[in-house]
UniProtKB/TrEMBL annotation:
Presence of keyword Hydrolase: yes
Listed GO MF terms: endo-1,4-beta-xylanase activity
Tree of life domain: Eukaryota
Family statement drawn from the similarity comment of this UniProt entry: Belongs to the glycosyl hydrolase 10 (cellulase F) family.
Classification lineage: Eukaryota, Fungi, Dikarya, Basidiomycota, Agaricomycotina
Keywords: Carbohydrate metabolism, Glycosidase, Hydrolase, Polysaccharide degradation
Protein name: Beta-xylanase
InterPro entries: GH, GH10, GH10_dom
EC number(s) stated in the UniProt entry for this protein: 3.2.1.8
One Pfam family, short name: Glyco_hydro_10
Amino acid sequence: MFEVYRRWHDDSDDDSLDQNHHRFQQRYDFRTYRQYFGTAADQGTLSVSQVSNIVRANFGQLTPENSMKWDSTEGSQNSFSFSGADYLVNFAQTNGKLVRGHTLVWHSQLPQWVKNIGSASTLTTVIQNHAKTIVTRYKGKFFHYDVVNEMFNEDGTVRSSVFSNVLGTTFVDIAFKAARDADSAAKLYINDYNLDSVNSKVNGLVNLVNSKRADGVAIHGIGTQAHLNAGGAGGVQAALQKLATAADEVCVHEVSRASSNDYLTVVNACLNTPNALVWGVSDKDSWRSGQNPLLFDGNYNAKAAYNAIINAL
Ligand code: XIL
């Protein structure tokens, strides 16, 4: 897995990024696939000892489940709050975990004051300030950022949001540039869901990433959320291959709701991709807890899917 990851980076035409990233690789000693396996958490879940123990023992990466979203970090204009994100970052650093930032520009969990903006120049400045302030605060601590999240409709067209309505797709350029300027070492991602087979949404995303990269926008990676329905993993491998034609890296992010076999299929598909991150630890704390989507049950016991993955790694 490490070799696959390295090869993709070595294909990148940006040597300084490669060097910085190799520094991360050395610091965290990426030698086993398990270290590419992450989960989402925040202060609430990490304060539960069963959860923090599972995270320490089993996962190499952490993503803030909610604490870095716009409504958590900048609920009022230019008034930033970092307590939740700081908690997660401190936990990650204390325990030697990588951190993946999530997420800078997303139509959801977005405060009303942003949604009300009608001026292109104001919204541009607001995106720049938001991205710059957050990425600068954690400069050197995050190895990945989800810069833009869920900007596509199922048919591959661009979703209506304040960002696209006011700025067209240039909001993508603005956000990635601001993030890149603030931390040139972090790998910057565009992230979406329902990319679980080669479909219209996958094609729309691939076309956009190709065209933005041709214009010099530093989109390094594509994240695919893989909130699967049971039995829904069969097309994942082909979709990952298609996504990988457009970016340096593809990250399977936010995996949940999969059956034991689906988890295994996804992990095996990841033999051609660098990264997998499940969306939480225990079914008890999941945003979709009714569907028992995760690798540990409500009593924090490992489920069959967990054991299947560990055997596969
Ligand atoms: C979810 C969180 O898990 C919930 O706690 C919250 O109430 C809603 O958001 N796609 C994403 C994630 O990119 O940020 C979402 O996380 C799940 C769907």
